[in-house]
Predict the 3D structure of the following.
Amino acid sequence: MHTVAVLALDGVIAFDLAIPLEAFALARLPDGRSAYRVLVCSPPGEIDAGAFTLRAPHGLDALAEADTIIVPGRYDMTRPAPEEVLDALRRAAAHGTRIASICAGAFILAATGLLKGLRATTHWAAAGELARRHPEIEVDPDVLYVDNGQFLTSAGLAAGLDLVLHMIRRDHGAAVAADTARLSVMPLEREGGQAQFIVHELPPRPSGATLEPLMRWMEENARRALTLAEIAAHADMSTRTLNRRFREQTGTTPLQWLHRARVRRAQHLLETTAHPVERIADQVGFGSPTAFRDRFKRQVGTSPHAYRRAFRSAAGV
């Protein structure tokens, strides 16, 4: 039987802890036997899991028994993990143990040095901080999970279940994984390369900045087919100067900023209205539905129809 050890540290996110416990416990082989033995391991003492505390039945020495170790996230992702935990993970890795992180658990896994030179992911809101702290890791914020073979990382809460189902499928085949997915009321077909649904903030529009009136005018006129030359003319400057000042104040170009503003408006309309995609493309200022779909997919990571299915509010039904 495959042994899975779930690591519990102080401040652990309870849902991150519960996902692998539940999913691996539900997995059954074709003859009905449990596919996994699941152990909860931690340093000595009580563990703060937010709404409750727990005392794990196994210590860190049990990690040496595991075929797979799961590292859940913690509420404070910047809190250093105890050195004894990092050492235990390194020893397990040296013996070939598979180690996977859920959400902000990637920070703990990254601190071991085991992800050096590898691609990894975490929740999109934490990806920038992970990349800043660990420039030796290629952080991809746009996927559900990354499988490097021995080391795996996942994005947010639901992506943690995607990753667990992926590992079950690797271990025991699609039929066992599909049965586990049905018991978990979870689709099996979400692949790791599918983008996280990210709320893309607009580049900054600094209050009092010299370009603030121009950016406000661009938002008000986003439905029009604005060109760089027209924007520069409205600002009474050359296109070269406009590009330079835009980069200084927002970190991007005028047209990139405008496209992001249009997509953000489109996200709102997809969530709150039943307007056809073709109408929304016109409302937000794209020249054609095809251009809108292409830009939306590049920025959000999925199609307008898929985004609407995921996020349409009751008010928009």
Observations:
- Confidence is low (pLDDT under 50) at residues 198-208, 313-317.
